[in-house]
Amino acid sequence: MTPSDDTKYTNEASKKTIVFLHPDLGIGGAERLVVDAAVGLQQRGHRVIAVLTGELRGLKPDVFFVDQLSAGLPLLKLLTGKPIFFYCHFPDLLLVQNRRSLLKRLYRLPFDKWEEWSMGWADTIAVNSGFTAGVVGQTWPRLVRQKKLEVVYPCIDTASIPASEGEENPWPGVKFLLSLNRFERKKNVALALRAFAALSPDVRKNAKLVIAGGYDPRVRENVAHHEELATLATELGLSHTTVYRPSTPTDVPLSSISPDVLFLCSVSTDKLKDLLLRHSLLLLYTPSNEHFGIVPLESMLRRTPVLACNDGGPTETVVDGETGWLRDAGDVRAWRGVVESVLGMSESEVKGMGRRGEERVRERFGRGVLGSLSASSLGPGLRRLVVIFP
């Protein structure tokens, strides 16, 4: 990779080598954060290495970057004696489901205690949002008294997004609202349906609701929840249709005569996702208590305002009244009010809010910002940092 202009802040003497430790190179937000952090550091001129666990010898790292699972930190510290930077996306013990049975709670007890104890071996602990920092503090108050938490926000690649203006809209003349989430119950997509259905018929006839997101027919919850949402739409008096694995704009039947609601199960190309975000009038981001939430940033970068819940990570990314709106997840009337207001806004008002959103993302959530924060959090004297994918 060719170093960006950020390298002017890093002279040869201060360039460092960084080792990243990551338990699984998958496709989720946690993996994206680690890759973006590595790229951001590389763009500042540092040497970044991603290796398998068996390749530690000979690297002579200054710092280890570990995320998600802290279980191996004590052994890593004892074997190498090197500083450890641990990135906590969310306490693992709070992600475990079905804790109601006594047997399950007893089984999890040693793992939960080990998570807190092993995390204490890190020299620096960072979290992905102020919301997560608060949860970590409530979960492990003793740990937080011993270790200061640093907030290092995830980021998106702002350089690869082309300018919004001048691109042809594949659905001209259609005002549509967008919900972009996996088909999972915890994403609370039903809120978007209820807010849309609460609009008066005169207002709603000029708009459509697109519900798009990750969908795998092999995942029972994805299939069941799509059926639940389709049933709810019918109960609310909304016409609807479903398209599976759309890949181009022609696969998306958006027009003045199309149904009220369009379900897009598994948008299969980044280009189509980009077009949906870019040309929607408003993003309805319905998850409550989201740890961070990357989709609002993707929407604002494309100059599309966001309506999100007034809790969790979006309260740190969306500025109410400037780049979007924050409303209570339990107040359908409040969500309807925002949607109705947006549908009645002038084009200049919508564009103004969109520009402010794009500026905020570029200034605060770009890779260069993440690389700078990561470098400062890793401490002085850093020359070699290695990321490991076991």
TrEMBL record:
Pathway where it operates: Protein modification; protein glycosylation
Keyword Membrane: yes
Record has Transcription as a keyword: no
An example molecular function term from Gene Ontology annotations: GDP-Man:Man(1)GlcNAc(2)-PP-Dol alpha-1,3-mannosyltransferase activity
Highest taxon of the lineage: Eukaryota
Cellular component annotations (GO), alphabetically ordered: endoplasmic reticulum membrane
Domain Glycosyltransferase subfamily 4-like N-terminal: 52-159
Places the protein is found: Endoplasmic reticulum membrane
EC numbers, comma separated: 2.4.1.132, 2.4.1.257
Domain Glycosyl transferase family: 173-244, 258-348
InterPro entries: ALG2 (IPR027054), Glyco_trans_1 (IPR001296), Glyco_trans_4-like_N (IPR028098)
Substrates-to-products reaction catalysed: a beta-D-Man-(1->4)-beta-D-GlcNAc-(1->4)-alpha-D-GlcNAc-diphospho-di-trans,poly-cis-dolichol + GDP-alpha-D-mannose = an alpha-D-Man-(1->3)-beta-D-Man-(1->4)-beta-D-GlcNAc-(1->4)-alpha-D-GlcNAc-diphospho-di-trans,poly-cis-dolichol + GDP + H(+); an alpha-D-Man-(1->3)-beta-D-Man-(1->4)-beta-D-GlcNAc-(1->4)-alpha-D-GlcNAc-diphospho-di-trans,poly-cis-dolichol + GDP-alpha-D-mannose = an alpha-D-Man-(1->3)-[alpha-D-Man-(1->6)]-beta-D-Man-(1->4)-beta-D-GlcNAc-(1->4)-alpha-D-GlcNAc-diphospho-di-trans,poly-cis-dolichol + GDP + H(+)
UniProt KW keywords: Endoplasmic reticulum, Glycosyltransferase, Membrane, Transferase, Transmembrane, Transmembrane helix
Family: Belongs to the glycosyltransferase group 1 family.
Annotated function: Mannosylates Man(2)GlcNAc(2)-dolichol diphosphate and Man(1)GlcNAc(2)-dolichol diphosphate to form Man(3)GlcNAc(2)-dolichol diphosphate.
Protein name stated in the entry: Alpha-1,3/1,6-mannosyltransferase ALG2
Source taxonomy: Eukaryota, Fungi, Dikarya, Ascomycota, Pezizomycotina
